[in-house]
Specification:
98 residues; alpha+beta; 12% strand; 2 strands
């Protein structure tokens, strides 16, 4: 996944392109984002402004996960059609009661 010069923002940038700004809070909630903060994978900087503003970035520890996730992304890209076909086959059998 190509990202800017500073790779720490790459993951968040990727998420931001997928969801609208109004859905970003929901995304953070659904991903249990606070666990990542607690584990030291993500850093949070709060700005004392109105309306409230916070910035997030991957820490060096968070960046170290990139290689592991890259393999999953590659596998997904290579096998997505087969997974979708298996799901369709399963769903069709379930509807028929097989």
């Amino acid at each position: 996944m190509p990202v800017g010069k500073d790779r720490r923002y790459g993951l968040w940038a990727a998420f931001s392109t997928i969801v609208s700004s109004s859905s970003q809070f929901l995304l953070l909630y659904c991903l249990d984002f606070w666990v990542y903060l607690r584990d030291g994978l993500v850093a949070r900087k709060v700005h004392p402004v109105v309306p409230p503003k916070a910035e997030y970035e991957l820490t060096p520890l968070g960046l170290s996960l990139g290689a592991a996730f890259c393999g999953v992304w590659v596998w997904t890209a290579e096998n997505l059609k087969d997974v979708e076909k298996a799901r369709s086959t399963f769903d069709e059998k379930a509807l028929r009661g097989d």
